[in-house]
């Protein structure tokens, strides 16, 4: 049994003892704390009511968790808009659509089916920042409950936001519904028996895309490991080839991560989901700037050529930005860190290398629906196979490793010494230590875990062998530091 409390929410396995798993008691405690801090964060005049959207993915525990969350919100005097089966981005947009004060998404994202979680949103439909998240953790730990009396209980309304989300994607200027429709694409979709079977199929249908659905029953009985990695998408790859489809689409259970399969069954690689979308948007920005006679350096939002990703994402995004005379900025790992940096830089596009696309013209949240709309538009314009499109991007390969330590105190010693040893290279210490070797287009990023005495080590290079070699080199240096 596992319960993980973090500034971004609470997640854990279902069943077990309170405090050791995601039990009804824990769910009530954290929902109550969210309400308490909501009132502090957004003070209202006496008599004015608060409204919170609740959406869930199709996990088996979803109904149970939803009943507890909704019941607690009602008991706190908060009105609830039940979005039912809704993706994470659908719920985020629903907060804006319904002019709510916040939202709670019931999903454990790519975690297996025994997991569930409460992801907490502000009035913009975005994740709470670190300070706000910590305040909720502290409040839940205090267990100072004070619920509303019978005359102040909240009320519940039901609203399906799926069509509104689909329309919002189609209405984006960069999404060319007509071009996609005229391309007559055939895709195979694997929504892993979760809400993607509802929302993604609706989008593809609206855009005139023929969709072959596998693992399409939204009952939470995940057909494979939910993380959209090539090793988990064997059936999708086989079906793409068997059906002579143009591509395969894989989404995680809450539809905020996106990965593609080429027409030949080979992985497009999730790191390149964001890269391909950014390439499309930067090309459009460059063309617009050329038409209007302005240099890329002088372009303004929403066409300002700035891309943002976290420090552990592929260098390919930077290469694409610079190809069009644009700029790349890196943020600490974590969606809220990426979106914060994107706001600061007024970025055109951003996201994470795990297949997360964040397009501010839509909203500041990872959205696989937006990613599909942009990717298919790009493919329709370029009129090439997905495997051919992949070859137009700079090749990089990532190696993922970790060092397990008996003493957490050794972590800072290792990171500090590595910073000294490689001070002559491009070193970034925003989140752990990232060392970029510009001459060979390689980098290695070391981050400490918040929950375990380990250092995660990501290395990237133009070949898999070089990436593995760089990771091994850094691991050996780290071990020598601690003797």
What's the SSE blueprint?
Blueprint: E1 3-6, E2 9-13, H1 24-41, E3 50-56, H2 62-75, E4 78-85, H3 88-97, E5 102-106, E6 115-121, H4 130-142, E7 156-158, H5 162-170, H6 177-183, E8 186-190, H7 196-206, E9 210-213, H8 234-242, E10 247-251, E11 258-261, H9 271-292, E12 306-310, H10 316-323, E13 327-331, H11 335-345, E14 349-352, E15 356-358, H12 368-382, H13 386-391, E16 397-404, H14 409-421, E17 426-428, E18 433-437, E19 442-448, E20 454-461, H15 464-481
Parallel strand pairs: 3-4, 3-5, 4-7, 8-9, 8-10, 12-13, 12-14
Antiparallel strand pairs: 1-2, 2-6, 5-6, 10-11, 14-15, 16-20, 17-18, 18-19, 19-20
Helix pairs in contact: 1-2, 1-4, 5-7, 6-12, 9-10, 9-12, 14-15
Query: What fraction, in percent, of the residue positions are helical?
Result: 25-40%
Instruction: Tell me the Rg in angstroms.
Output: 23 Å
CATH topology description of the largest domain: Alpha-D-Glucose-1,6-Bisphosphate, Chain A, domain 3
DSSP summary, beta strand count: 20
CATH class of the largest domain: Alpha Beta
Strand fraction equals 15-25%
What would the principal axes of the Cα set say about the shape?
A: globular
The total of helices stands at 15
Tell me the distance between the termini: 35 Å
Q: Record the strand order, biggest sheet.
A: 1-2-6-5-3-4-7
Q: Mean pLDDT, as a whole number?
A: 93
CATH superfamily annotation of the largest domain: Alpha-D-Glucose-1,6-Bisphosphate, subunit A, domain 3
Sheet with most strands: 7 strands, mixed
Number of domains: 4
The CATH architecture name of the largest domain reads 3-Layer(aba) Sandwich
Uncertain spans: none
Sheet/helix structural class: alpha/beta
